[in-house]
Every structure is written in structure tokens, then in C-alpha cells.
Amino acid sequence: MPEIKVTPLGAGQDVGRSCILVSIGGKNIMLDCGMHMGYNDDRRFPDFSYITQNGRLTDFLDCLIISHFHLDHCGALPYMSEMVGYDGPIYMTHPTKAICPILLEDFRKITVDKKGETNFFTSQMIKDCMKKVIPLNLHQTVQVDDELEIKAYYAGHVLGAAMVHIKVGSESVVYTGDYNMTPDRHLGAAWIDKCRPDILISESTYATTIRDSKRCRERDFLKKVHESIERGGKVLIPVFALGRAQELCILLETFWERMNLKAPIYFSTGLTEKANHYYKLFITWTNQKIRKTFVQRNMFEFKHIKAFDRSYADNPGPMVVFATPGMLHAGQSLQIFKKWAGNEKNMVIMPGYCVQGTIGHKILNGQRKLEMEGRATLDVKLQVEYMSFSAHADAKGIMQLIRMAEPRNMLLVHGEAVKMEFLKGKIEQEFSIDCYMPANGETTTVTTNPSVPVDISLNLLKREMALGGPLPDPKKPRTMHGTLIMKENSLKLVSSEQALKELGLNEHQLRFTCHVQLQDPHSDADTLHRIYTHLKSVLKGYTIQHLPDGTVIVESIVIKVSSSAEDSNTKVLLLSWSYQDEDLGSFLSSLLKKGLPSGIC
Amino acid sequence: MEDAEFEDILDDWFIESLKTYKDLHVYQLEHPTQVLEWTSGNSVCVAGYSQSKNEILELRLPLKLLADENKSLCAERDFKVSHGGFTDGPVRCLTHIPGTRCAVTNDGLSSDLQVWDLGGEESDVIRRTGSIKGKRSASERGSRIAARPSSAPQVLHGAQISDVQLTELASGETLYKLETDSADPLSSLQFVSDTVFLAGCCNGSVYVADTRTSAPPQLSHSPSSAESVIWWTDAAAGPRPSSRRVIRVSSSGQAVVSDLRNLGGAGCQAQLDVQTPGRCSQVKVSWAPTLDDCISVSGFSGVVQIYNTRLWGAEPQEARPLFEHRGHAVSSQQTDDSVPTFVTSHIWHPERPRTLLSAASDGSVHVWDWVDPNRQGGSPTP
Questions:
Q1: How far apart are CA A43 and CA A49, in angstroms?
Q2: Residues of A in contact with B123 (CB under 8 A)
């Protein structure tokens, strides 16, 4: 039976690194290549030894697809492609291709420069890896090779995030990556058509949660900012150039306007340029509202938000500053942090995850004394707030997506099976599909039942309909007689005569002949007549003829009688039938072997 | 209403909420719930009430809400569905048996009860483990259920006052029956001590009895003889005898407070400021567990109101609520204005003084920690 195999790579039950292998129709595809941010050693990379013990991965993989730029989905990409070795195609959307290398380089700098790691990928490796990337557009089918095709769908979540549809022949798989089903201020919600894949693969990290509304998260943000400003404090918000920064700016601008607040809000210029640049490039990836705003004016022409100058950091009084980089590991945001950390009226709001080794990570873990360059210690007295704005689908979201795509099977990765029995039961009950939950390193095999579409010739169809009887029904298939012709990539069903004609062949006739011995004292003619009468009484409903030329014909079967040379009472019956009447023919020969009943005349 | 207009109103309420709430969490369940029941200090059960299949979910409160120190370093704002199960019918009443992982439900169609195991570490599935037969196979409102506070798992239940019985869960044995002839349907049933319970009838009369004796119950008649008025009751089971009070609220918005030891005696009264008096089916009235004299009321509309009964006098006067949670009404997604959203249930957190959970007919569940308007202006209350 045809089957699709799915294996999440990794060790143990660890969440935090996405890398999934799919074998479908003879093709091997790797979905995402994430880094596990919690480990410092090789455990942070996916376990590629599952694919091959040593050597390059090129021969074993048909393609690699990256869903979005978060490090737990693409962090191990340069390692896999340049250090382990892979030269095949790497697919990702345009925004992902633009943003990935920036994040990877940042990450590399932190890990190597700050933490002094050695077995790590280099800047050149990142560049070389990105050269292998083939960008994808939404809803555009891309032929990876003759048989494998992929298509990207909008996933929401972050700029450029995609869900991927993979098809080989009539088998298909959809991988969601990270997605969300509720639109937010700058991104829309995930969408997919009723593509009915054999398997829908999704993360289960948030599958057993019910998400607090986006508005409440925003409320918390505004409340914290407002409270700090009211007491005269300064608020630092370290951000990456894209995504949340825009959203938070729009939020603050609206709030400042509504509340008639006077404290200045600044946005560091480097941020503005980069962000504008990316938004211009990828305008189709944002939601309607942003597009409308952008068309009307420059993204960053806010009434209350101005460009930052480093000297402003020393100005007295309250202010809010958005600055890069997002994890406080270098640059302007770190400089400002150093200036403001000592005052408990101030606040730093971290809107996202921070990689180990960064100041952001340390303060989010509660560290209040930091060692800076030159042995100086920094006392962290300001308020540290961790807020998560990332958009993920929850339990309800997963059900909505399944309803949209109508997969035949569901597969959830990164969950503990014991903690997901209820969800599994819910999916199985509501949709009557199987729900699989492989552990990392475990392979799930899903048997598919691919249907092979075949064209049927009109003549053949008409002939079958003319036979009458009930119409064909999936529960009561009807046997039909035809010839299947496979030509190039098409399959068609035609009548035998047409097939022979097309192939330029003559139809052969097959006739069977058998001799049956009979003891009968009558003349040949009389014996024949007796046979005729006997058959007429036994085979009611059949056409039986006694021809003047000395033959009895039953349907197409010919029966002749002759006497044996040695003994005139021994009659030899010659039975001859064509292949089509095989059943009747063999029935007759068995019947006649039994002899003629005595009462016949 | 127009989308833009809708968004604006929402914004106004949210902006206002910066001052009026300390914490606010808004969730959307797949299906609305009529029950909210604590199963531990940080988890609640909810359950659907559609005619056919429904889910029972045990939800763990967001870590950020519960964190006291390091609250600012915790970004987790979501409910975690820690356990879930399926029922064949609606769930109109759900009671957790203290000290166990067991819950008892009633479907509002008969007075039979279903018994459930909420599951532990090894499995996240809530399973039906048995049932308890009630007196009536068909009942308009279904049974009220109360769990005995002590260690022995026993439930008090009944659809009408004459049916009230105490059943031992393990054996199914009936340990006690309330002796009375009256067939008044019940709107509430609760223990006020380990053995003494209070049964509130829909007509407003209240019975107090002790499960240790077969003596007839104490009866306090309804404050009003009006026929079509329905009453709901809640008793404050505080440690001090002075805090043992009973409040009765009617569908016309009348509220009567009396002392548990002297139900018929003079207490205080008020006319509540409810928007649609008369049009309500799931009124819930509750004493605040830690705030003296405060009560909460919901079910008349999409609003949960908190009143300070200390301001009430002997004569019924119009009372203004101390606080109103309008979140459900304001953020309701329903476009069908003929059936406005109403709050189906609410509960107070047992320890955090001003934290409540409320659920509404549109499937929303809110968790909110309100700011006492009389203490506003100063530094935030802890």
C-alpha cells in the first residue's frame, strides 16, 4: 500500500527546534531546520545522522523548505547546508529569504563573539547557504522536479511565514510551520483552500491552550508604558526592525492621541529605514489596514513619534524609545539600557524571546547585576517587563485550520502524547480522521489511498449505461469490461475494439474443443437428437438449436456426434466453444460426460 | 453596527480599563459555558450546554495572573487546557468534590447526576465513572448539587425541595433525606458548615437543615408573594457568626439580606440597578469570599455588578453598584441584536480579594481583577 512517512528529528521530547523529514512518493523533503535555543552543544542542532551517518545530505534529500525566519525554524540552516553539506534546492518565501540572513548573522555574532564558541557557522557560510535559496510566491505551484511540486500559503504569524503544500502524484502533505487564525494589527490570518491533503502536519505547542486576546496583551503594554510615563520614568523597548515594532508604534500613537499625552516617543533611525525598506518590498504580506496606511503615507510618519538622536537619552523627563537590536546584545538599545538601568522609575519592555548570552536573556531570567566590559558591574534597578505578542494558533485555531484544509489524517509534532489524548480524541471525533503524535526521532507511517483518475471514452460509458441496471455507486462498484491505455502521463479507459484499433492489432479468437465419449446404441442422428432434447430440458432459457447440417448449437457452442470406428455404440461427441463461452462449455462437457438419461427419445 | 464603530467602542472600554482593572484577560471558548467551578486554587472547570455532545474542560489559570513575585518576568497569559472530556448532553450544573479529582454534573433535563474523574498526571482525559439516580426522570430545571466540605465524598442534590438527599459517592447510598412535603423547585443548594445546608427555592423561600438530624428544616418564607418572580440565593459561610448571612435576589431586581440565624428578621434590602428586570434565566448571586459585605450579581444582561451591602438600609432603595464589569457586553461579537449576550456565570477567586471569572453566552470567558473606585487615585492596591 502506498504510504507517507513523517519523522520529527531531534532528541527526546524537546520542544524548541523544528526539523521534520517527510518521505512521500519516493521523494524526501526536510521541513524547517531549526536550532534549539536552550542547548550550547551539538544538541542544539537536529540529529541529521538519522538521514545518513556521515557525508553530505544532498543525495538523500530532494529539497528543504523553510517556513519562516524564527531561529527555531531556520537557525541550523547554515550548519546543515555548509558544515554537514547540502547542495540541493532550499525553498522559502521572499521576505524569509531577505530576513533570515540578518537574523542568522546576529545570532552568529552573539554566539561566537560574545560567548566565544568555536564549532559554529561563519558569516561566509550564511552567504553561501542563502545562494542555494529559491524564493517562493504565495499560491504559486513550483515544480521541484518532474514529480514533486510545492506551493506556499499565507500563515500570518510573522512577515513572510508560510504554510507549505507538498504534492507527489496524487499524494500530498501540508506543513503549517507556525501560524495563527486571528488577524492582528499588521498581519492577516492564515488561509488555505480545501486541498484535502493526506496529512496535515502541525505543531502542538499551543494546541492545548486558549489564547488571551490580543487586545489584553496590548492593554498590558499600554498600562505599563503609561504608568512609567506618569511617574516620570523612561521606557526602552528593544525591537527587531520588523513586525512587532510597527504594531507597537501604531498602538502607542493611537493611545497618545486619545489620551492627549505629551511625553516624546522616539524611534531610532536605523530602524525606520530598514523597516520602510522591507515593508515596501513585502507590502503584499501585510494586512489590509497596513497596506491602506502605507499607500496613504510613509510607514513612519507619525504625529507623536520622532526620529531618535543619541543625545536625547540624557534628556530629563519621561520618554519612550524604540531601539535595535531586540535582545540588548549590542548597539543603540544596549547603550540606552546602560544609561537608564540605574533608575527604578524607568522600564524596559522586552517584546520577544532573547537568545542565551544576551543581556536581554539575563534580565529576563531575573538577573539584577550584570557584568559589563572591563569588569564593570551594572545594577539593574529599572523595571523589566516581558511581554509576548507572538501570534500563535491555539486549540480552537487548530480545529479551524483542519476545517479549512480537510486533511485525511492529522499529525501533531512537539507534544507529549499523554498530555494530548483529549485533543486527539476531539479531532478524531469531530472529523473522523486519525490523529498521530510521533515523538522526536519516531517515524509515523500513514497509509494513503490515492485515487488514480482515468478518462473513460464516451462510447464505453454509453455502452455501460445501456446495459441498464442500477447506477454505479461507491458502495456497490460494478464490474465493467474495458482496456486501460497508459500513454505519456494520461490514463484512459476504452472499449476493447477501440483499443485494438488504436494499437493496430487484430483480435484473436480462441476456441476450445473437447471430445466426450458416450455409450449409445442409436444412430448418430438419433443420438444427436437425444442430446438436443436432453439439453433443452436442462438448459432452460438458453438458445439451443438443432441444425439440419447435423449439429446442435447451444449459444455459440457446437456439438457434433460421430461413431467410434471400433464400436458403433460408442459415440464420440465433439464439443467446440469460444473463449467467451468457457463457463457454459465446461458445464456442458461435464454434463454430457454423465451420459444421457434413459427416458429420452 | 459598523466595524469601525464597534472597534471604537471597544477601544474606549479598553482604555478606560487601564485605570479600572489591575489585570484583565479575555478568552474565547469554542462553545459557551454555564458553569464555572474551581477544582483547585488555580484551575476551573467549564462545560458546554448544547443539546447534544459537549465538552468538559479543566482550565489552568494563566501563570502571569497567579505569579506574585516576578510577575513582570512572566509573559504567559493563556489558559492551559489541562484536562478535557466529552458528555452526551448539556451540563447545567457542575460541582467539584473537595479533596478529590472528582466532579459531579447534572444535565438540567432530569435529576440524575453524572460522576466524573477529572484525570491526573498520567492522562488528560476526563472520564465518566458512574452516575447517581435522582428522584425525577424528567425535570424542568434539573438538580442543584452541593458537595460536602469535609473529607468524605458526599453530595447533596435535588431538583425540588422535597427531593433533597445526601448521597455517598463511593457506595451510592442515601445517607440523608430532607423531610418536607413542599414541591418547590430549587434554585440553589449549598453547605454553610460541614453538616448544615441551605436550600433556596425559586419562589424565594429558604430552608436550613442539618444532615445529622431528621428534624424538620427551618423555613423562611419568600420576601415577596409575587407569583412570577424567581429568586436566587447565596449564603456567606464565613468563619465569624456575624458574617453568616444570606442574600436573596429576585428576577425583578429586588435584593434582601438576612442573618443566617434569623432569616425572617430584619436585614437590609435594595433595588438593584439591573437593566432588564424580568428577562433572565441564569442569575447568579455570590458573596465575595474575602471582601466584607460585597456581593456580585450577574445574569440580567452582559454585565457583572458588584454591590456593597453595607450601604443598604432596612427599606428597599435603589442601589448603585460599586463596580460593573461590562466586558462581555462591550466586546460581544454577536450581530444578532435580538438576543443580546448575557453573562451565564461568574465566580470569585477564593483568595485573591478582587479577582473574578465570568462567562457569557457568546462563549467568552473573562478573568478580571478590578480596582475599587473608592481607593482609586492612590498607589495601586496590592
A1: 12
A2: 418, 421
CA distance A124 to chain B (A): 36
* Alpha-carbon gap: B28 to the closest alpha carbon of chain A (Å): 8
Give the CATH fold of the A3-210+391-447 domain: Metallo-beta-lactamase; Chain A (3.60.15)
pLDDT tens digits, residue range B135-148?
Answer: 877 777 789 999 99
Q: What is the pLDDT, as a whole number, of residue A242? A: 66
Domains assigned to chain B? 31-221 (2.130.10.10)
Record: contact A422-B83, CB cut-off 8 A: yes
A345 in reach of chain B (CB within 8 A): no
Which CATH code for domain A214-386? Answer: 3.40.50.10890
Contact B74, B67 (CB under 8 A): yes
Look up cell 506618569; give the residue: A230
| Cα(A139)–Cα(B342) distance, integer angstroms | 42
Q: Are the Cβ atoms of A258 and B15 closer than 8 angstroms?
A: yes
Cβ distance B84 to A423 less than 8 Å, yes or no, reads: yes
pLDDT at A14 over 90: no
Q: Which residue out of A203, A218, A247, A385 is catalytically annotated?
A: A203
A218 is catalytic: no
Give the number of other Cβ atoms within 10 Å of residue B106's Cβ. Answer: 28
Spatial neighbors of A364 by CB under 8 A, at least 6 apart, are A350, A354, A384, A386, B73
Q: Looking at the complex, report in whole angstroms how far the Cα of residue A284 sits from the nearest Cα belonging to chain B.
A: 23
Q: Which of B147, B177, B144, B137 is nearest to B159 (CA)?
A: B144
Domain edges within chain A: 3-210+391-447, 214-386, 452-469+480-507, 511-594
Asked if A213 and B72 come within 8 Å (Cβ–Cβ), the reply is no
Contact across the interface for A219 and B25, Cβ inside 8 Å: no
Does A51 score more than 60 pLDDT? yes
Please give the residue of chain A at the shortest CA–CA distance from B72. A385
Strands B355-360 vs B343-348: parallel, antiparallel or unpaired: antiparallel
Q: Are A553 and A559 in contact (CB under 8 A)?
A: yes
Judge if A214-386 and A511-594 fold alike in CATH terms: no
User: Which residue in the set B11, B73, B331 is minimally distant from A366, CB to CB?
Assistant: B73
pLDDT in tens, A222-252: 999 999 999 999 999 998 866 678 778 888 9
- What residues pair up with A175 in beta bridges, in sequence order? A164, A201
Which residue ranges in chain B fall short of pLDDT 70? 1-10, 238-243, 276-279, 333-338, 376-382
* B381: closest CA of chain A, how far (Å): 14
Model ipTM? Answer: 0.90
Judge: A425–B125 Cβ closer than 8 Å, yes or no: yes
Topology of domain A511-594 in CATH is TATA-Binding Protein (3.30.310)
